[in-house]
Amino acid sequence: MKKVLVLPGDGVGAEVCHAALPVFTLLNLPITLEFAQIGWQCWQQSAQPIPAQTWEKITQSDAVLLGAITSKGKQDAEAELTPALQGQGHKYVSPLIEMRQKLELFANVRPVYSIKPGQRPFRCVVLRENTEGLYCGLDRRGIPEEYRSWVTHTNIDRSGHQDVAMSVRIVTRFGMARIIRYAFEYAKTNNYPSVTYADKPNVLRESGQFASDIFWEIAAEYPDIHAEIHNADAVALWLVQRPERFGVIVAENMYGDILSDLAAGVMGGLGIAPSANIGAETPYFEPVHGSAPRMANRGKANPAAMFLTIGLMLEHLGFGNEAEKVKRAVTWVIQSGDTLTYDLGGNATTQQMADKILEYIQNAEGNEQGNVLAGLVEDLAEA
């Protein structure tokens, strides 16, 4: 029996989550669902976007299914705390970043493929390194004394060392080797013909060359998989023009973030884009459309990304056949075009589109059981 922790989260996350959850009942899998709290309301009330009780449940689960999380800037985060918690030095950290780092979920997996009518066939995946790069948290205002010998710039001289902000991009052999090897193994397991490393080694000359050297070292171990390095901006262009040329695209944190959202746009939008975060401990799975607070409780959010995210999770948990059923159902509903949310050109509500997807799965399950029974009857007759 597998245990899945459901964290509905904020905004439309809770809506798409609850609309899609009946799929577990339809598929009749050995999975138990538990629920806990996470997100902005937790931060407002306790200055902990991930309460201690939720952390405990995360560590006891086989996977986490996350709806969506609201994150805001430093000033808004302080202002929206309850008055008793304001001015106490609480620092808001995105729950997503906290989970990735504490659980060592180093690989953000973003598969994209042709799913809308009229698209030419393509199938690729963007793998984003989750734990280092420009998003590792080394972001500060002011240049400390001990940094000033190497953090130099004409505009720093003009502004003064305190009127400057800086971010540091961390690239380690451990981190890059781990994500690059994961990329080649992912390509091998999932029958992708190529791995493309997207970076800017022509500009980021030291960290870029360092990462490139690691890439080629590991690529040599996989002679049957085509390996290449291209500038991230060129990869962005080609993703729009010729997505079918790619297999696995792997990148450090920031470039992977940008390219994966762009790839989702090529697929059809964030409303149909699933994601997984995989690593050393409990993985979590989430649609990538965000919490969209302005759309909350309006019944307009597209549930397709949540269904496809559940499919990714089922595949990870070893239920590959059921994952394929979910993917086929979402594809059929989008291709048929008669029950779509506004982002796909329709006027259906979140629940109406979810019900259509569930209906397809239910009918498919019934037909499958009917075929099995028919086969048994035929075998008995022949005997």
UniProtKB/TrEMBL annotation:
Belongs to the isocitrate and isopropylmalate dehydrogenases family. GO terms for biological process: isocitrate metabolic process; tricarboxylic acid cycle. Keywords: Oxidoreductase. GO terms for molecular function: isocitrate dehydrogenase (NAD+) activity; magnesium ion binding; NAD binding. The keyword Methyltransferase does not apply. Signal peptide: none annotated. It comes from Rouxiella badensis. Pfam families: Iso_dh. Residues 3-357 form the Isopropylmalate dehydrogenase-like domain. This is 3-isopropylmalate dehydrogenase. InterPro entries: IsoCit/isopropylmalate_DH_CS, IsoPropMal-DH-like_dom.
